[in-house]
Every structure is written in structure tokens, then in C-alpha cells.
Fold this protein.
Amino acid sequence: MSGLTVPVDAPMAGDDIMIETEDVGKVFGSVRALDSVNITARRGTVLALLGHNGAGKTTLVNILAAALPPSSGRARVAGFDVTREPREVRRRVGLTGQFASVDAQLSGRENLVLIARLLGADRRSARARADELLELFGLQEFATRRPGTYSGGLRRRLDLAASLVGQPDVIFLDEPTTGLDPSSRLRLWEIVEGLVAQGTTVLLTTQYLDEADRLADSITVLSAGSVIAGGTAAELKATVGQRTVTVTPDPATGPDAAAAALRRAGMEPVPDRENGTVVIAIEASKDIAAVIRALDHAGIEATELSFGEPSLDDVYLALADQQTRPRPAAPAAPAAPTVVP
Amino acid sequence: MTAPLTRTPEEGTAAPVAHAPGRPGSPTAWAGSSMLGQVRVLTGRSLRAMATDPGTVLFGLIQPVIILFVLTQVFSKMGHPPHFPKGVSYLDFVLPAVLVDNAVQSAMQSGVGLVDDLKNGIVARLRSLPIHPSSLLIARSISSLVRSAIQVVIILLLGITVLGYSPKGGAGELAASAGLTLFISWTLGWAFIAAGAWLRRAEPMQNLAIIAIFPLMFASSAYVPVDDLPAWLRVVAEVNPLTYAIDATRALALDVPGADAALPAVLISGFIAVVGAVAAVLGFRRPL
């Protein structure tokens, strides 16, 4: 888009694209951290950046939060160019990094008041805003304690509260639940869902596939600084993953006999002796019926039969595997906001 | 008008509204802060941390105070060297130098304070906010100046009440001397803030203090008049900027000749401040 000619004063009317990059690249010395990344996120949606350590997720987040200039390409956040109008961008975004970005010397409440004051609030509204956020995040009883005494989950909550002081349009969550226990993760997810429901745009980086699956409207998979796939969770699964049927035959029969019966019906079953099950990859839902017919024909009782959608784990492993081979034809789903080069 | 926050009865799963139209006092009505306001808020933050942890003020005093007590107890019984100013006790002679020593230690602490900030997460937060990055550096230098001033007052009070410091110059001259000491502390602070912004570790700065500043204090007019130093040390002492600082503050406080060293002292430390501040801003801008 013609980012350079758009006036500085306001985002275009009706333009609800909140994050947009155009061939963003970043080079650190001789290391190419990002290579021609194109992503888009609309207002009130969650875009997940999925990738392993070193894939370039944090670098991209820092560029979008106007904390790090890109080496090439352009990025617009909340309608402003991150290189040309970094202050306008910072006024509209909140950043929650992998490490708690709060002052260890101040109490939780003092941290929030400090940020509000730096954003231009007078003392009274700064305190009011801090108290609102403390209550919202269930931090009141820890308000006067220093973050150093907090548990990991509390610190993450304080950090998220800190990035919400100025009511940002866009928040960047860089691996927000890394190292958290399950209940803290759930709590944080609920907070994020609440924010999105009220129109905040979220860019989430994560290594946890279930997190992306639960929160994200669309997912971009990064590997070694490049986008290797993009789409909704369902689209990614449909493209790469495989659906399976898992049969648990009667223990008297055993997985091997069941596998033999299914093989005779022209299928490719994989017996799992340890769990006493047989796994059959299928193409379509009607293939489930074929599995049942084949078992019935051989007179084998199944104590349990389950149908499995591929997990994002499978998707990610498959994509990572493809990376070792020549560039894959990436799934270009028309509905997906992520643009794949 | 929509409240900026809504809340469900339990679990606090609701979150702040992204766009609460400009209700007075709500974040979207905040106009942003001026650099002066940012410096004020951030200085207040450092001072608050100092007030809740006064150990940093007291810890910085240990070395100057030990030097003060040891030197005055050891050397006051010895005869004065030939070029020692007439009618001046060793305590009176050495106390202004101890203040300069403290000023240097305090300057180093501003750099250490910046390194602490870089480590403790607040810098990462500040970088994501629409504020001037140099606000934090200026706030650091100001809060360091406040700490230095508290230390100067404590050393002076100790010297006067416990040891019997009685400088010949009047109260005005003593204040001018202390003011010059603080100016030197503040300007040198910028060199250490620059070092902190580039090195981002406290150890190299503390090593610098031990291997450079400690010898430089001795190779100066601090504890013995320059003319009484061995020839090779005298050469070092005469080009040592600390000699100018010590000569000037001592001359002011004791009303002895040497106050003309004040001009070079101010010029040298002003130069250090300007170079240090530019280097500090450049170093601080680099990504974390």
C-alpha cells in the first residue's frame, strides 16, 4: 500500500487493518533475522505468529512495536508507519514481552501509576487507572508488593496490565504464557479473549500450538525469518495434517489381528502394541464407515473408536520437515489474512 | 458514556475497552507527556527507590569516610611536607579531597544505576512507551546528584562535629566549594552513564573505578601537595583533571591560593559532561 503518502494525522476512515507489513526484513550484522515478511491483521482479531526459538517472532514484534527499526520493507500499525511515526505507533500499542518489563524497585501499583504518568495522566487519574487495572487483573492484594515477590503468573498479569494502561488499540503478546502453570495460562487466555471481544487487536507469538489454536483467528508460521505458511487453524490442518481413526480392539483380539483384518480391506493400519490400538489414516469422513465395516466383517469387537483431527503440532512438524526440502508450495487460502510470498 | 473498564462479576475475564471516547481523565484523553514531565516522573521514581532502600546512599559513603578517618588519624601525627599550606591542619587539607573522591564514587553509581535499570525490565517497558529515551538518562543523573548532595552534607557534618573540621573560608565559600564538588560529580556522572549505556554491565565500571580512579586520586593533589610528590607522580598529577577539581574546591573552602583552578575544573568537567551525554544517548539507543 502507499504507506508513505498517507497523512500522519489519522488512519484512513473505514480502514480496519490494524497491522500490516510489506516485505519487512531485518538483518543483524551478517544474520538475516527476517526476510520479506508480509502479514495483515484486522481490528478485533488475533493473529498468532507460530515458530520455534530463533524463528524471528520477537524481532518482528519489536519492529511492529516501533522498538526496533526494520532493515527493509514497511510496516504500519494502527494506521501509522513504524519507521516514520514511531511515537504515534507507541501511543497506540501495548507490548508484553517474554520477560517482565516492570520496575523491580517499585510496587505493582507504583509501576502502573508510573506508566500512566508517563503517558500524560495527572496524579489522580493515574491512580484511578492503576486501581482499575489491579482490580481487573485480580492483583489488589499484591498491589503494594514488589514484582520480585510475585509468582510467574502474577508477574505476567502485572506486565499485561502495564501494557494496557494507555488503552492500546493493538497489543503485542510475545510468548505470554511461556513458563506459566496451566491455570495461569487459562486465566491469561480469558483476559486476552475479553480484550479481543472489545475490539483490541492482538498479535500473539507462541511456541504452544494449543494456544494459537484457542486464541488465534489466523496463524502465520515463521521459520528462520520467513513465513512458511499461513491461514486459519482449520486451513492449516486441512492442508498439512491428516485425520485419523483410532480403534481399540477387544483385548482378546489384539491390535495385530485387527490390523491384519483392516489390511485385507485395502487400508494401511498402523498397530500400536503398547496402547493396544490401531491407527488408520483416512481421507474423508465416510472412510470411518469403511473401517467399521471391515472390523464387523472380520468379527472383531472394538471397545473404543475415536476420530482425531490433526493437531497444530502435526502441522508444525510437517511444515518444519518440509523446510529441509526445497521451498514448499505454501497454502494460499483466500480467506486467510496472511499473505504468503 | 462508556466506562473505560467493564467487569464481569467473577473471574475478571472482561478487559479494558480499546476505545473509550475521550472521557475526561480516561487514558484516551491523556495528551502524552512533555520531556520535562517525563524527567520529573522518572526522577521521582529513582528517588523513591532510594528512599525505600537508603543502603545505596550509605554504602557509597563507606569508602570516603574510611579514607577520611584513616588518613586524618594516621597523618595528623606526622610532620607536614615542605609545600604543605601554612596554618592548615591535615584534616582541613584532606576533607575537600574526600568530598571529590565521594563525587567520583557517586558519579560511578549513576552508571551502575543505569545498568540496574537496563537489567530490571523498566527500560524495556519505557522503550515501548511514547517517551523520549533520554528522559531516563537525565532522570538518572539528577537523582544521582541528589544522592551525592546528601552524602556531601553527611561527610561535612561528620567532619565538623566528630573530627573538628574548621575551614578558614566562610560558610559562603564552603557552600561554593560543595557546589563545585557537586557539579563535578554530576558531570562525571555522564561519563559513567555513557559507560553504562554501552557496557550494560556493572562490573567493568566498578573495575574502572578500582584500576583508574583509585590511583588517580593518589596521583593528584588529594592527599599530599603536588610539589611534594616524587617527580614522575608530579607529572601525572599535573595533568590529572582531579587535581584541578581538588585544588579548586580546597582553595574555596580553606581560603588558600589555588581558586584559579576552578575555571579549568569547570571547563574540563563540562567537556566530559557534553561528550558523555552524547555518547550515553547513542549507546542507550542501541537495541537491548
Q: What stands out?
A: Chain A touches chain B through 59 residues (CB under 8 Å). The CA atoms of residues 14 and 43 of chain A lie 11 Å apart. The two ends of chain A are 16 Å apart (CA to CA).
